[in-house]
Amino acid sequence: MMRSKEWEKIWDKRSVDFDGKDLRVIDGFDTLSCDEWERAVYFFCDKLDIDDSDKILEIGCGCGAFLSTIKEKYNDVSLCGFDISERAVEIANREVNGDFLVIDACEDEWDLNNKFDIIFSFSVFHYFNDLISTQRVMEKSLKLLSRRGKFLIGDIPDKKHETHDRKIRIKQKRDRVGNTDHLYYDKGFFIDFAEKNNMKIEIIDHVKYMDGCFPNMSFRYSVILRSDINE
Asked: Is residue 34 part of a domain?
């Protein structure tokens, strides 16, 4: 079975266990305290320069933990998200003030009749099957991005640290069910994409900027693509 489908089963199961738990926990960020989680989310909000009038789309929104935290600070933003897990989307629609849809980011068409000021996907790209799937998702995202929009791809496993990171995951028994390993990315993949699409790119190394927010932070980085390069 493909990596994305294996992870779909895992996230469906986690969502079944919701029972009023914190969305942060159900969405897999249970290693962070509430304060650490908010600090991480608002770090990226500042980087994206979010405004209350922004329309925001999250790819792989899960139960809506990230968007819900954004909404706590920016009350008037318009939120939309989609995820492969039906159960997660059900929870998001119930718990978060936004519009949430069941969509497989890699395989389905995105029937969204809107443009977004900010599109982001946080801690999701490593669940994709391969770089071709990733390329497809990024190209779809650009079609929905407003003229001066920003696109965040957050919490990306660094290809440079793949060997060491895999050893840690095996030791921690975190790759135990089928094809549930992670897809790792060379930074050059995103740099090339930015150049081909005439976008400005900012690479955020977690070990330098995140000040301990995430475990394994030295193995992760984030990317912000901006479409206003000539403005």
From this structure: yes
